[in-house]
Design goal:
The chain is α+β, with helices and mostly antiparallel strands. The chain contains 3 helices and 4 strands. Helix content is about 35%, strand content about 25%. A hairpin with a 4-residue loop joins β2 and β3. The longest helix has 13 residues.
C-alpha cells in the first residue's frame, strides 16, 4: 500500500466533471484506489462517492492505493489532482 497527501488547488474544487475524469483514470488501473479527507474515505471508482468528500480548494486529500500497479496508479492520480484546472 502506498499513500500521498495533496491539497486541492483548483478554485472550484473537485466537482462533477473532474470527479468523472478521475473515475475514468482510476479504472485504468488494477489497484484499489481510495481518497480520504481525514473524516471520510471513499472508493475512487465512483464519482458520487468522490463528490461526498466535499473537496473544495484548500482541502487536503489523501490518495491511498493498494495493488499490483500501485506506484503507477498513485503517481497518475496525484498528478491529475495536483494539475486539476477548470
Amino acid at each position: 500500500m502506498v499513500t500521498k497527501k495533496i491539497t486541492i488547488t483548483n478554485p472550484t474544487g473537485l466537482h462533477a466533471r473532474p470527479a468523472s475524469e478521475l473515475v475514468a483514470l482510476a479504472k485504468t488501473f488494477e489497484s484499489k484506489i481510495s481518497l480520504s479527507n481525514g473524516k471520510k474515505t471513499v472508493n475512487a471508482m465512483s464519482a458520487i462517492h468522490i463528490l461526498t468528500l466535499g473537496a473544495k480548494a484548500g482541502t487536503e486529500i489523501e490518495v491511498i492505493v493498494e495493488g499490483a500497479d500501485e506506484t503507477a496508479a498513485l503517481e497518475a492520480i496525484t498528478t491529475f489532482l495536483e494539475q486539476l484546472k477548470d
